């Protein structure tokens, strides 16, 4: 059975801290891994990772994929209260079936 | 503006009633998806459609039905057979095909069954 596991499930940090969110997967026919941010409504796309070892960056957010060890991390540096959200990791299979989502990491950034 | 719309935003129904959730996209995407999200859970796939007039069951299709008569529309019916219908429902779409494309999500419909 295909599995996507995120850790931690929840996290509380102070503004300015750096956080690392983890996503491990066990799937057949891996195609890509995606990160989304969800703030009480529709998930918004952050990154898509298809190749190992290539870091994707967008401002204070970055992500990298390790296809050998089957995991990805999402880093957020200098966190702000606006980063408070649920971060979802999803894996797309080669079949183009749909996305397999993890349960998400709920991040709360306090002032 | 291009995007995905879902209506209504909030929906209340009595137990035993069927209800249909709307999903429309003007992105010219071939593939459309319905997900369900419960508190503290990730998204679970209900149904998906990769082309007009064709759709497949996802992981939790029991108690739900869909149709795909037009490319831009993929309505979801929650039937009385669905045991726990109260949830947040998200519709998504993607161009489909072999290219790498993220899924775009609509704003969601929060269904509460009383």
Keywords, please?
heterodimer, A: 111 residues, mainly beta, six-stranded mixed beta sheet, five-stranded antiparallel beta sheet, 0% helix, globular, B: 114 residues
Describe the structure.
- The complex is a heterodimer of chains A (111) and B (114).
- By secondary structure, chain A is an all-beta fold.
- Chain A has no helices and 11 strands.
- In chain A, strands 2, 4, 5, 9, 10 and 11 form a 6-stranded mixed beta sheet that branches. Chain A has a 5-stranded antiparallel beta sheet with strand order 1-3-8-7-6, with no helix packed on it.
- With 114 residues, chain B is an all-beta fold.
- Helix content of chain B is 0%, strand content 49%.
- Chain B contains no helices and 11 strands.
- Chain B has strands at residues 4-7, 10-13, 19-25, 31-37, 43-51, 54-57, 64-66, 76-78, 87-94, 104-105, 109-113.
- In chain B, the strands form 2 sheets. In chain B, strands 2, 4, 5, 6, 9, 10 and 11 form a 7-stranded mixed beta sheet that branches.
- Chain A binds chain B through residues 4, 6, 9, 31-32, 34, 36, 41-45, 48, 50, 88, 90, 96-99, 101-104, and chain B through 31, 33, 35, 40-45, 48, 50, 58, 90, 96, 98, 100, 102-108.
Q: Based on CA inertia axes, which overall geometry of chain B fits? A: globular
> Span from first to last CA of chain A?
41 Å
- The secondary-structure element order of chain B is EEEEEEEEEEE
* Count of helical regions of chain A: 0
Poorly predicted ranges of chain A: none
Care to count the β-strands of chain B?
11
The interface involving the most residues is between: A-B, 24 and 23 residues
Largest sheet entry of chain A: 6 strands, mixed
What would you call the structural class of chain A?
mainly beta
Rounded to the nearest angstrom, the radius of gyration of chain A is: 13 Å
Q: What is the rounded Rg of chain B?
A: 13 Å
The total of beta strands of chain A comes to 11
The helix count of chain B comes to: 0
Helical content class of chain B: under 10%
Low-confidence stretches of chain B: none
Gap between N and C termini of chain B, in Å? 35 Å
Quaternary structure: heterodimer
Helix content of chain A: under 10%
**Envelope shape of chain A:** globular
Strand content of chain B: over 45%
């Amino acid at each position: 059975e295909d599995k996507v596991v995120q850790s931690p499930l929840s996290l509380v940090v102070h503004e300015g801290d750096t956080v690392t969110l983890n996503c491990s997967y066990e799937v057949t026919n891996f195609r890509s891994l995606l990160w989304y941010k969800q703030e009480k409504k529709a998930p918004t796309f952050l990154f898509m990772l298809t190749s190992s070892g290539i870091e994707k960056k967008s401002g204070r957010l970055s992500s990298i994929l390790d296809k050998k060890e089957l995991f990805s991390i999402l880093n957020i540096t200098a966190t702000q209260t606006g980063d408070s959200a649920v971060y979802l990791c999803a894996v797309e299979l080669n079949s183009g079936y749909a996305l397999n989502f993890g349960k998400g990491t709920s991040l709360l950034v306090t002032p | 503006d291009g995007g995905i719309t879902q209506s209504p935003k909030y929906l209340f129904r009595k137990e035993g009633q069927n209800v249909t959730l709307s999903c429309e996209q003007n992105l010219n995407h071939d593939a459309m998806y319905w997900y369900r999200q419960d508190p503290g859970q990730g998204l679970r796939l209900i149904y998906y459609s990769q082309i007009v007039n064709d759709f497949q069951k996802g992981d939790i299709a029991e108690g739900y039905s869909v149709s795909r008569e037009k490319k831009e529309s993929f309505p979801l019916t929650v039937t009385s057979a669905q045991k726990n219908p109260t949830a947040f429902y998200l519709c998504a779409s993607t161009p489909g095909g072999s290219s790498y494309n993220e899924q775009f999500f609509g704003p969601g419909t929060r269904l509460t069954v009383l």
